[in-house]
TrEMBL record:
<keyword id="KW-0915">Sodium</keyword>
<dbReference type="InterPro" id="IPR027421">
    <property type="entry name" value="DNA_pol_lamdba_lyase_dom_sf"/>
</dbReference>
<dbReference type="Pfam" id="PF14792">
    <property type="entry name" value="DNA_pol_B_palm"/>
</dbReference>
<keyword id="KW-0378">Hydrolase</keyword>
<dbReference type="InterPro" id="IPR003583">
    <property type="entry name" value="Hlx-hairpin-Hlx_DNA-bd_motif"/>
</dbReference>
<dbReference type="Pfam" id="PF14791">
    <property type="entry name" value="DNA_pol_B_thumb"/>
</dbReference>
<keyword id="KW-0237">DNA synthesis</keyword>
<keyword id="KW-0548">Nucleotidyltransferase</keyword>
<keyword id="KW-0808">Transferase</keyword>
<dbReference type="InterPro" id="IPR016195">
    <property type="entry name" value="Pol/histidinol_Pase-like"/>
</dbReference>
<comment type="function">
    <text>Repair polymerase that plays a key role in base-excision repair. During this process, the damaged base is excised by specific DNA glycosylases, the DNA backbone is nicked at the abasic site by an apurinic/apyrimidic (AP) endonuclease, and POLB removes 5'-deoxyribose-phosphate from the preincised AP site acting as a 5'-deoxyribose-phosphate lyase (5'-dRP lyase); through its DNA polymerase activity, it adds one nucleotide to the 3' end of the arising single-nucleotide gap.</text>
</comment>
<feature type="domain" description="Polymerase/histidinol phosphatase N-terminal">
    <location>
        <begin position="338"/>
        <end position="417"/>
    </location>
</feature>
<dbReference type="InterPro" id="IPR050243">
    <property type="entry name" value="PHP_phosphatase"/>
</dbReference>
<keyword id="KW-0227">DNA damage</keyword>
<dbReference type="GO" id="GO:0003887">
    <property type="term" value="F:DNA-directed DNA polymerase activity"/>
</dbReference>
<dbReference type="Pfam" id="PF14520">
    <property type="entry name" value="HHH_5"/>
</dbReference>
<dbReference type="InterPro" id="IPR047967">
    <property type="entry name" value="PolX_PHP"/>
</dbReference>
DNA sequence: GCCGTTTTCGGCCCGACTGTTTTCAGTCG
């Protein structure tokens, strides 16, 4: 069973307990535990088999450890089943309505026997909810509108899309006379793979001007809430954006606060408490006196920490590093010297070899590998051995004619469902760069997937596994891989791993990339471009690498091709 | 339910905004 599936048991139980009115710290304990399971690279199924001590994981005590064992051994959790009997699934679903939380949902269920979104909407329309103590007409309207727009408001967005809107609004706010500083904060600034909503922070002499401008902005659909320092709006694409206006002396503290993550902030506040200080979005205070707040650096410094790059603020590794003043110098976009995964018109790309090479040269790259699909990918016009060898001759010819960039003969070779490679070794050995990938049969059981991956890892002519899990963010999960075993095998056989930079892949994830780094596996950041515009996703690969704590040295294609070859088998 | 250089009890992050209230609970981030 996957860690995320086990985490889902705890999150489900937390929802139910919350509606049931359980102790909120107990609820939090389940959510914290779930979060640990989601972000750990440790294979829980394996740990249970090996009888490892689960309580060594953060937020996992005796009780949760036992529940994890139960889940893995039986595939279910009695306490969850019991709660599900008590509270129907439709009740939990009501939590998805914006502005409606567990307390209200609990009241609807207990006092009015409402068990589904449909029943709730009906009750709101009949005015039955307003009869309850503490409820009124506004709440009914919130519920009706919330249910009608549920599909819109519960969406998450690719970082690429969200960041585009946030940057545009930030830049427009910065043009206002009263606005001094403006920054996009939140998960967007942390460069998370997906973004639920946007946060923009400004310092301004006049908060009304910024709020009026935002309300009138072309991207904005409607204002949801507005106070003196905070305004929430919904953009036309459905994403919601919070604007916060803070005084200049609080800008750094506010930036820390609104960048998050929530978990990172909790640790910071605890550190503040331990030092008899109080941290909020207005600054770090000793009693009533402001100790730090103008810059992020001084806030961290007063908490005995080095400044933490936003990408690392997930309460995973950053506090140990910041405390020891060992925050690594993270990878920068300019460090990347080559791109080793792309397509041309030979398979499903839009541009020629020369076209891709010219565009790469414009971006300052020193080398590229042309890696069209192999024959299994029929719909992409994948190449068989004969066509590939001809294609490689053509690449050699174009390379001869092209100055200023080296063009390498590559292939994106499928690992077939039966565990063999789509092309013969006899062909593969003639190329410069061989990527092996899973495209089909991603739903096969773990053992079968692992066998396929091992074929590729141990093949002497396969240099790298591309988009290792095959996931598509917001669309489908990746293959069920035993990551520990997979990474160890790659380390043992000198097989490199990709961070595919496309914003819908970002595969490896940051957790897996960090684990690969720990094993000394060189990471290659590639765009998988199907046209020259496709190169533009490179920055997202770099963000992902930064979130994994990767430096220039950890990434193979920051080197020259000659240097990089020394890392390859 | 978790956790511990004040350890097995008593804490557990903090503030803005809304809607419903006359002082606050619920929700959200």
């Amino acid at each position: 069973m996957r860690n995320s599936e086990i985490a889902a048991f705890f999150n489900a139980l937390a929802d139910l307990l919350e509606i049931d009115g359980a102790n909120s710290f107990r609820v939090r304990a389940y959510r914290n535990g779930a979060r640990t399971l989601d972000s750990t690279n440790a294979d829980l199924t394996r740990m249970v088999e090996d009888e490892d001590n689960l309580t060594e994981l953060d937020g996992i005590g005796k009780d949760l450890a036992e529940k994890i064992i139960t889940i893995i051994q039986t595939g279910s959790l009695p306490q969850l089943l019991e709660m599900q009997k008590k509270i129907p699934a439709g009740v939990v679903e009501m939590l998805r309505i914006p502005g409606i939380g567990p307390k209200k949902v609990g009241t609807f269920y207990r006092d009015l026997k409402i068990e589904s979104l449909e029943q709730l909407k009906e009750a709101a329309e009949k005015g039955e909810l307003a009869k309850l103590k503490g409820f009124g007409k506004k709440t009914e309207e919130t519920i009706i509108e919330g249910i009608d727009t549920l599909d819109l408001t519960n969406r998450r967005f690719y970082l690429a899309e969200a960041k585009g809107y946030a940057d545009e609004i930030r830049n427009d706010l910065l043009k206002l006379e009263s606005v001094k500083q403006a920054e996009v904060a939140g998960s967007c600034r942390r460069r998370k793979e997906t973004v639920g909503d946007l946060d923009v922070l400004v310092t301004a002499s006049d908060s009304a001007e910024a709020m009026d401008a935002l309300a009138a902005h072309a991207l904005v659909d409607k204002v949801i809430a507005r106070g003196d320092t905070k305004q929430r709006v919904r953009l036309k694409n459905g994403i919601e954006l919070d604007l916060r206006v803070v005084p200049e002396e609080s800008y750094g503290a506010a930036l820390v606060y609104f960048t998050g993550s929530k978990e990172h902030n909790i640790v910071l506040r605890r550190r503040a408490q331990e030092r008899d200080l109080k941290l909020n979005e207005y600054g770090l205070f000793k009693e009533e006196k402001l100790v730090a707040g103008k810059t992020e650096e001084e806030v961290y410094q007063k908490l005995d920490l080095a400044w933490v790059p936003p990408e690392l603020r997930e309460s995973r590794i950053e506090f140990d590093l910041a405390e020891a003043d060992k925050i690594p110098e993270l990878l920068e976009l300019e460090d990347i010297k080559g791109d080793l995964h792309m397509h041309t018109t030979a398979s499903d790309g839009k541009a020629s070899i020369a076209g891709m090479a010219e565009a790469a040269k414009q971006q300052g790259l020193k080398y590229i590998a042309i890696t069209d699909h192999s024959k299994r990918v029929m719909m992409a016009n994948g190449l068989d051995g004969k066509r590939l060898l001809k294609h490689w001759e053509e690449i050699d010819r174009v390379n001869e004619e092209t100055k200023g960039i080296e063009i390498l003969k590559g292939i994106e070779c499928d690992i077939l469902e039966d565990g063999t490679l789509d092309l013969e070794d006899e062909v593969l050995k003639q190329g410069d760069w061989v990527i092996a990938v899973l495209h089909y049969g991603l739903k096969q059981p773990r053992a079968k997937i692992m066998k396929r991956l091992m074929t590729a890892i141990t093949n002497p002519y396969v240099h790298m596994i591309g988009h290792p899990t095959g996931r598509l963010i917001l669309k489908r999960p990746g293959a069920d891989i035993d990551m520990d075993e997979f990474l160890k095998a790659c380390a043992d056989h000198g097989t490199l791993l990709e961070i595919n930079a496309h914003f819908s892949r970002l595969d490896l994830s940051e957790v897996h990339a960090a684990a690969a780094k720990d094993l000394g596996i060189p990471i290659v950041i590639n765009t998988d471009a199907h046209s020259p515009e496709g190169y533009n996703v490179r920055q997202y690969g770099v963000y992902q690498a930064r979130r994994a704590g990767l430096t220039k040295a950890d990434v193979a294609n920051t080197r020259s091709w000659a240097q990089m070859k020394k890392l390859m088998k």
